[in-house]
Design goal:
The chain has helices at residues 17-34, 56-72, 92-101, 106-110, 113-120, 129-143, 157-174, 184-190, 226-234, 252-264, 269-276, 282-305, 309-337, and strands at 4-8, 39-44, 82-86, 147-149. With 344 residues, the chain is mainly alpha-helical. A 4-stranded parallel beta sheet has the order 3-2-1-4. The protein has 2 domains: 4-196 and 309-337, HUPs (Rossmann fold); 226-304, Orthogonal Bundle (Tyrosyl-Transfer RNA Synthetase). The chain starts with a strand and ends in a 7-residue tail after the last helix. The structure holds tryptophanyl-5'AMP (TYM).
């Protein structure tokens, strides 16, 4: 069995450059360089898409759109070790979630910062139980395939740690059921980073750039026209220091721009910082960032328009059949461990 690299992106709205840089790019870099040595699973967690209210009439198209985004971003779907699938087509995800739910503490879920943040924005009656226990579904997504490596942005770190906790807890009680994904620092090492990535909102750089942001003013969506994205970058919030310096804590606006510049131009952060630090024109830095963002969007959108749906659908069908079998085997082991099926 090859080690598994796995990630998913919810289909609740258009994806952003935060999603792209935090999860899609590291995943696809690995898929391109390591498929053959590793198994690569990239999926749409469609069941996760409505933990907060969405327009359901759009969901089916959004799911297909996100799958096309994976291909446009460079996922090599012609490779036999690459699997691309929709979570809800593999019923083991829901079934394992229920089992894991019964071994998960209420307090454990209640401490998840993403739940606290998201629920704080909703009226109590609209905070769904799905939002509350969605880290359990995420754990099932990972454990069903014995994934070791899970590229995610910084906001998912706590959920990944929970996945390790619940896997270890089940293994301690029932014997070796699940492969435990690598600890977060080891994940960063594997993906060649020193920490989890957090692209910030351009208007409010103390918070992350989020696809579910209400105004979208500080968010660059992958579907933004280069002109609209340029406007957003040029109106990014900076600071009153008057001199460029990379310091995410004290100068999050400028540092966020430097970060986007380094990532989209595929250059080391310290090299980009050295080029810009000490300069006094924030406008020039914004122009440079707007340029790389525009070029990226132009190229990406051209590739997106060229994605062949027939090839994608054929790949989906083959991957979903293969993954039903893999996930089914892990589910059976868990069912057997808790006494729902005869001992294996
Ligand atoms: P989601 O759909 O909110 O986000 C998808 C991925 O994008 C990353 N991300 C960011 N990275 C850097 N900067 C940002 N501003 C930024 N915003 C989002 C997220 O960290 C994530 O990696 N629960 C997950 C989806 C999921 C999943 C899984 C991921 C479901 N099952 C199993 C990995 C493995 C989520 O809601 O991500």
């Amino acid at each position: 069995m090859k080690p598994v690299i796995l990630t998913g992106l919810r289909a609740n709205n258009d994806l952003t450059i935060g999603n792209y840089l935090g999860a899609i790019l590291p995943m696809i870099d690995m898929a391109k360089s390591k498929a053959g040595e590793y198994q690569v699973n990239m999926f749409v967690p469609d069941l996760h898409s409505f933990t907060t209210p969405i327009d359901h009439a759009q969901l089916q198209e959004q799911i297909m759109h996100n799958l096309r985004v994976f291909v446009a971003a460079g996922l090599p779907i012609d490779h036999d070790d690459v699997y691309v699938y929709r979570q809800s087509y593999i019923s083991a995800h829901s079934e394992l979630t229920w089992i894991l739910d019964c071994f998960t503490g209420f307090g454990e879920m209640n401490r998840m910062t993403q739940f606290k943040d998201k629920s704080a924005k909703l009226n109590e009656d609209r905070i769904s139980i799905g939002l509350f226990n969605y880290p359990v579904l995420m754990a099932a997504d990972i454990l069903l395939y014995n994934a070791s490596y899970v590229p995610v942005g910084d906001d998912q770190t706590q959920h990944l740690e929970f996945t390790r906790d619940i896997a270890t807890r089940m293994n301690n009680q029932f014997g070796e059921l699940f492969a435990v994904p690598l600890a977060v620092p080891k994940q960063h090492e594997f993906f060649g980073k020193d920490q989890g990535l957090r692209v910030r909102d351009l208007m409010e750089p103390t918070k992350k750039m989020s696809k579910s942001d209400e105004t979208g003013k500080g968010v660059v969506f992958l579907s933004d026209t280069p002109e609209a994205a340029t406007k957003k970058v040029m109106s990014a919030t900076t600071d009153s220091f008057g001199e460029v310096k990379f310091d995410m804590k004290e100068r999050p606006g400028i540092s966020n721009l430097l970060q986007i510049l380094a990532l989209l131009s595929n250059r080391p952060q310290n090299e980009v910082n050295a080029e810009w630090e000490g300069k006094t024109s924030y406008g020039d830095l914004k122009k440079a960032v707007a340029e790389v963002v525009s070029t990226f969007l132009t190229d990406f959108q051209a590739r997106l328009a060229g994605v062949d749906d027939q090839t994608l659908l054929a790949k989906l069908e083959a991957s979903e059949t293969a993954m039903q079998s893999v996930a089914g085997q892990t589910l059976y082991k868990a069912q057997s461990a808790v006494g729902l099926r005869p001992k294996v």
